[in-house]
Write a structure and sequence with these properties.
The complex is a heterodimer of chains A (about 190) and B (about 1000). By secondary structure, chain A is α+β, with helices and mostly antiparallel strands. Chain A contains four helices and ten strands. In chain A, the strands form two sheets. Chain A has a five-stranded antiparallel sheet with strand order 1-7-10-9-8, covered by helices on one side. Chain A has a five-stranded antiparallel sheet with strand order 3-4-5-2-6, with helices on one face. Chain A is globular. Chain B has about 1000 residues and is an alpha+beta fold. In chain B, the strands form 13 sheets. In chain B, strands 8, 9, 12, 13, 14, 15 and 29 form a seven-stranded mixed sheet that branches. In chain B, helix 7 packs parallel to helix 8, helix 12 packs across helix 14 and helix 17 crosses helix 22. Classes of the chains: A alpha+beta (about 190), B alpha+beta (about 1000). The interface between A and B is large, with 50 and 50 residues.
Chain lengths: ~190, ~1000
């Protein structure tokens, strides 16, 4: 179902909120990407084939991710998160339906904050008991964790760049927390 | 007194180029960077730092570090003040200001000191004995005792400092940066391990900072510097000075407190935290926590000027401060002798060394060879001086120390150093569950059995010889590295100066009289006589003794006194020390500020505030918010100048007569897909779902296994195997977890895919007789005619061209369209609805009006009208309990005899005789009104309000056997009157639901 171009989708983070960029910790709002939860059994050949042919991606295993322009992130033994570019919401829903993949659109339900910079890791260590040492939490790894008082899906997308997904309602809190945590490195 | 009279002309680890000015009790002094408050005061000849807790006796410095039991001060002022700060651990900073505690008006002239004169009336456990009667007066006593007892003052203003948290995972954590700890950390680092090394002091080195020892023929501190330099070359080593590991918890979890900026005082950069709480998980933990010297127990052993020999050595070597001009040393082992020699070398007169041992041995001979007077088999039996030591009496000991006799001599001195042996610092080891054994030779408790993941090295393990400490450290580092799966680095153990033998002469107390005060626990003013009295009164268990006498309690937790107390308890019981056991060691090892525990989760970050996409709109339009779980939901939107009640009334009437708009985005929404969703619904709801057609909705009650409803909501059937289950706002997470638990734990065979879509869909409920008109004006491709889109149905379509799901469900009894759009469009649609409804006087609707509207209809609010002990039958909802289903959760519980009782509390309506009087919420309904309570209770009011629609008060209540009592009247006693109300059906407005289906 196409959406009118004249109506702009709003991020949970107010547009006037400038990215905090002090050089060593940067925050960027990436909430408007298309996002879907996919359901299926990894041992169901029909499902894995459908994912492979529809998305051109292998289903990632535990705590792993696959793809870059379209990314699949492992969430649970039978759940993955699909992230695609902003504007792909409708097309992707159609694609998944056609491929017979059980899915739910959460494009507007989840926010995404990109945390990067040389002190990004220090900010993570203030916030989560997850073992995020770069030797353990490798490039492309993802994990769901308690992040201060919110539930966050953490994805290491580059050496010192992390995407933090949370429910939309927590985005404002999470941004405030991260901005506060970054103050130490200002 | 001129400045820093007691400072040595050279030496020490202080920076003489940086003179720091500070005040103590408002008097100005000078010290150097690198000083502690204690060392700087000592350098200035300040001997009296505090008054004691109970007797208000003058107290000076006993120790030089964490063991200090006296010198607790109030640090700073205003919002930045710290009570109970330890002068021996406060690093000096410019303009530091500290004050004595436990005294008024001043430490030198303390009115509380009268308690010392009535000390005989204040024995152990005196307040258990004295203040027991009359019980009502405890409220008065409590304040007096609190004031008399002192301790620090809590700041009254909010703490302006930042505190941070940090989690860390390492291969090996080494606690303690003395020789053993450094050796362990170095070996672990060389083996490639990720190491965390923490030490409570500002510098690494431990006892080496206080001694004049050598390693490999060079000053030991050269080895420390070289080790630290090498550790710095490893990229992944965390070195934490000024960091106390205060807790060792299950699963190798350590809590540490780093004093990041405390040593800078108010001059710290504002971006940095004052303290940082580290939460560390380590595969292997090496405890190199050292040992604390024990004082000796003799009369008046608490006078200012009585100091531990090890502390004097620290002040002399680390801070270049003479502890006094003329000292007497009393010791039961060799470890005080290097201190004696070093003091003498710095020009301090060592007037006498009283050694409790009949045959002191080689170190004593060496001291005598240096011209010092050693008195074998002599004890200190009296201390002269009140505000400071002026002299001591030494007396020969006989019969293995049991009897005094012979020539007493009085030795003039200003300082008395005592050395009573060493207690390994086993606090963390014990917290970890490690068992202790009493070492008869060293007369101390030391770690016994090894524990997986944990090793104890050096003095903490009862190993005092420096070379052996280094060897243990290296070996532990290697072993820990191997256990982490690493190849252990080779080691070369350096040679070191032999350490004097710390084996003490086992005399736990110098013989003394009944009235002598021989302090065991200086911090809590507990004497040897107190302990014996407690034993005589039957407190023979060590845990009882601790609580009764307070020995080992409070801020210092008996760091110096505990082992002496155990030994005296054992002696009083006539048993060996091993039979006594120890008290439990609990975190924290040293006090931790609440600010550090809270971290940055304070102020606006105290807890998350969940926001719907419309929260900002609500705030901008004057909404008064109310917390609902972590959400903030609008309670009412008063116009400028409008009274709260008037606004609520206006919103109610808009719903009944016009149109209103409610943000119900917080309602939980769970997307269910799969072949077995219908089966799941039939199992988790008490009602039946088979007949629900695609496009229709149904209300369901979700019961716990106890048969009591814990959540309710509407479920819509979107497709063949596709449903949308809605929950209450507060119950969303609980319901999701409940369904997950059943699906994963009990019914893994069911094909059901669950997704929480609560935040994806914003829910805008357009409510009222004119709702249809407004929605139609907005533009939608959904046929809104009642025949095409009846109550309890769902339609997918477009609203303003935006994909939407519209549900006809109602919580008010009016026609209601719940428009669900992706959250990113919520504000656009909301504002368009407000514009479209402007001519019809559309109003945003808050929760307070909603609560009235639903009460008028008798719609249930789970948790308000239910309390976890009412069944669907009690609620008059038997129609929602399927009789045809084989199973649903809670089914069996509904057949229990208790659930079938006739006199259960049941939901009814109440109409007060006076229609204008509102019955208070929670009011009790009684069977009979008597002149005073108790009155037999038969129920209580759950919801109550004044209904603007009906222009009278209404209430819902849970009433015993209520369903059979319709039409009867009941009494509700209130403090000032008795209200009478008639029992009705719990539906006050449009009971047939005609408006709903319009």
């Amino acid at each position: 179902m196409p959406r009118p171009k004249s109506l702009r989708r709003q991020s949970p983070l107010r547009a006037d909120r400038a990215p905090s960029a002090n050089g060593t910790v940067m925050l960027d709002d990436r909430s408007l990407s298309a996002k879907f939860i996919l359901h299926g059994r990894p041992d169901d050949a029909a499902f894995t084939r459908a994912v492979a042919s529809a998305l051109g991606l292998e289903l990632p295993g535990v705590n792993h991710t696959a793809g870059s322009e379209r990314t699949l992130l492992w969430l649970a033994p039978r759940e993955w998160l699909l992230v695609a570019a902003t504007g792909e919401e409708d097309g992707m829903a159609q694609l998944l339906t056609t491929a017979g993949i059980i899915h739910a659109d959460i494009s507007d339900g989840w926010a995404c904050i990109r945390l990067s910079g040389s002190n990004a890791l220090d900010v993570l260590k203030k916030s989560t008991p997850l073992h995020v040492h770069p030797r353990v939490f490798l490039l492309g790894h993802c994990a769901r964790t308690r992040f201060v008082q919110a539930a966050v899906l953490l994805h290491r997308v580059a050496e010192t760049t992390y995407d933090l997904y949370c429910e939309r309602s927590y985005a404002d809190y999470l941004w405030r927390w991260l901005a506060d945590a970054a103050q130490e490195f200002a | 007194m001129s400045e820093q009279d007691y400072r040595l002309p050279a030496g020490g680890r202080i920076d003489r180029s940086r003179t720091l000015s500070f005040t103590f009790n408002s008097r100005r002094y000078q010290g150097y960077a690198g000083d502690t408050l204690a060392s700087a005061l000592l350098a200035n000849g300040v001997r009296m730092l505090a008054r004691s807790f109970k007797y208000h006796r003058p107290r000076g410095l006993l120790g030089a570090g964490v063991e200090e039991p006296n010198a607790f001060v109030q640090l700073g002022s205003g919002a930045r003040q710290t009570p109970n700060a330890l002068a021996t651990q406060i690093e000096l900073y410019p303009d530091l200001a500290a004050y004595s505690q436990n005294c008024w008006p001043a430490v030198g002239f303390d009115l509380g000191a009268w308690t010392n004169t009535i000390a005989a009336l204040l024995p152990a456990g005196f307040y258990y004995k004295t203040f027991m009667w009359p019980a009502q007066l405890w409220r008065v006593y409590e304040h007096l005792i609190r004031r008399a007892a002192g301790e620090g003052q809590a700041p009254t203003r909010p703490d302006p400092d930042r505190y941070e948290h940090r989690w860390e995972q390492v291969d090996i954590a080494v606690i303690g940066g003395g020789p053993a700890g450094l050796a362990a950390a170095l070996t672990a680092a060389r083996s490639g391990a990720r190491v965390l090394l923490a030490d409570e002091s500002s510098e690494f080195g431990g006892r080496l900072l206080s001694e004049q020892t050598e390693i490999d023929g060079r000053p030991a501190l050269d080895w420390v510097a070289a080790t630290l330099a090498e550790l710095a070359t490893f990229p992944d080593i965390i070195r934490l000075p000024r960091t106390t590991a205060f807790g060792y918890h299950d699963h190798q979890f350590l809590t540490l407190l780093e004093r990041v900026c405390e040593h800078l005082g108010p001059h710290a950069p504002p971006r940095l935290p004052r303290q940082r709480l580290w939460q560390v998980r380590a595969q292997q933990v090496i405890l190199a926590t050292g040992a604390l010297e024990r004082p000796l127990v003799f009369p008046d052993n608490d006078r200012p000027g009585v100091m531990l020999a090890s502390a004097a050595q620290t002040y002399l070597n680390r801070y270049a401060v003479r502890p006094g001009t003329t000292v007497v040393i009393v010791t039961n082992n060799d470890s005080a002798y290097p201190t004696a020699l070093e003091l003498a070398a710095q020009g301090v007169t060592v007037a006498a060394i009283a050694d409790l041992r009949p045959e002191p041995g080689g170190w004593a001979e060496r001291a005598e060879a240096e011209g010092l007077t050693v008195l074998p088999a002599h004890a200190v039996t009296a201390v002269q001086g009140y505000r400071r030591v002026r002299g001591v009496t030494v007396t020969p000991l006989h019969d293995s120390g049991q009897r005094l006799g012979g020539e007493r001599r009085v030795v003039a001195c200003d300082t008395l150093l005592c050395a009573g042996g060493w207690n390994p610092t086993v606090h963390l080891y014990s917290q970890a569950g490690g068992k202790l054994r009493y070492d008869e030779t060293l007369a101390c408790l030391r770690p016994d059995t090894a524990r997986p993941g944990l090793s104890v090295v050096g003095a903490a393990n009862g190993v005092f010889d420096l070379a052996s400490c280094l060897a243990e450290g290296f070996a532990a580092g290697q072993s820990a590295a191997r256990l982490c799966g690493l190849r252990a680095a080779n080691r070369t153990i350096p040679s070191a100066t032999p350490t004097p033998d710390p084996t003490p002469y086992p005399l736990w107390q110098t013989p003394a009289g009944q009235r002598d005060k021989c302090f065991v626990d200086l911090h809590n003013d507990v004497t040897a006589n107190d302990l014996r009295l407690a034993v005589r009164e039957g407190y023979v268990s060590v845990e009882h003794l601790k609580r009764y006498t307070t020995a080992g309690m409070g801020i210092d937790q008996g760091k110096t006194g505990n082992v002496n107390a155990l030994a005296l308890l054992a002696a009083a019981r006539g048993e060996p020390i091993t039979a006594v056991g120890t008290t439990t060691f609990r975190p924290p090892y040293t006090p931790v500020a609440f600010g550090a525990v809270a971290g940055r989760q304070v102020g606006e970050l105290y807890a998350p505030v969940r926001k719907t996409p419309l929260t900002d709109w609500h705030a901008a339009h004057g909404a008064v918010f109310e917390p609902t779980g972590l959400w903030r939901r609008p309670l009412v939107y008063p116009h400028p100048g409008e009274q709260h009640a008037a606004a609520v009334r206006r919103e109610c009437l808009a719903v009944r007569q016009g149109v209103a708009l409610l943000d119900s985005s917080t309602l939980g929404k769970i997307d269910l897909q799969g072949r077995d969703v219908l089966t799941l619904l039939n199992r988790v709801y008490s009602n039946a779902w088979d007949s629900l057609a695609i496009g229709r909705c149904r209300y369901g009650l979700m019961l716990g296994e106890d048969g009591m409803p814990f959540d309710d909501g509407v479920t819509a059937r979107l497709g063949e195997n596709h449903y949308l289950l809605m929950t209450t706002s507060g119950g969303a997470a609980r319901v999701y977890g409940w369904l997950e638990a059943w699906l994963q734990g009990e019914w893994p065979d069911l094909d059901v895919c669950m997704t929480s879509v609560t935040t994806h869909w914003a829910s805008l409920a357009l409510i009222g007789p004119k709702a249809r008109e407004v929605l139609a004006a907005l533009g939608t491709d959904i046929d809104l005619t009642p025949a095409a889109f009846p109550h309890l149905s769902v339609r997918s379509g477009k609203v303003m061209g935006i994909p939407a799901r519209v549900l006809r469900v109602s919580f008010t009894g009016e026609v209601s369209y719940e428009i669900n759009v992706p959250a990113g469009y919520a504000t656009t649609v909301w504002e368009a609805l407000m514009t479209a409804g402007h001519a019809l006087a559309i109003t945003p609707l808050g929760l307070e009006a909603l609560d009235i509207l639903r009460a008028e209809k008798g719609y249930l609010l789970i948790g308000k009208d239910t309390d976890g002990a009412v069944t669907p039958h009690d609620l008059g909802m038997s129609g929602l309990v399927s009789k045809r289903k084989d199973f649903f959760i809670g089914q069996r519980s509904l057949a229990r005899s208790d659930a079938l009782r006739r006199d259960r509390r049941q939901l009814v309506g109440l109409l007060s005789d006076d229609p204008q009087a509102v019955i208070p919420e929670g009011a009790y309904i009684v069977a009979e009104v008597t002149s005073r309570p108790p009155m037999p209770l038969i129920g209580h009011v759950t919801s109550t309000c004044f209904s603007p629609t009906l222009n009278r008060s209404i209430a819902l209540a849970l009433l015993k056997n209520g369903h059979a009592r319709l039409g009867e009247r009941v009494a509700i006693p209130l403090p000032d009157k008795v209200m009478v109300a008639r029992i009705t059906e719990p539906r006050f407005y449009d009971p047939e639901g005609i408006r709903l289906h319009a």
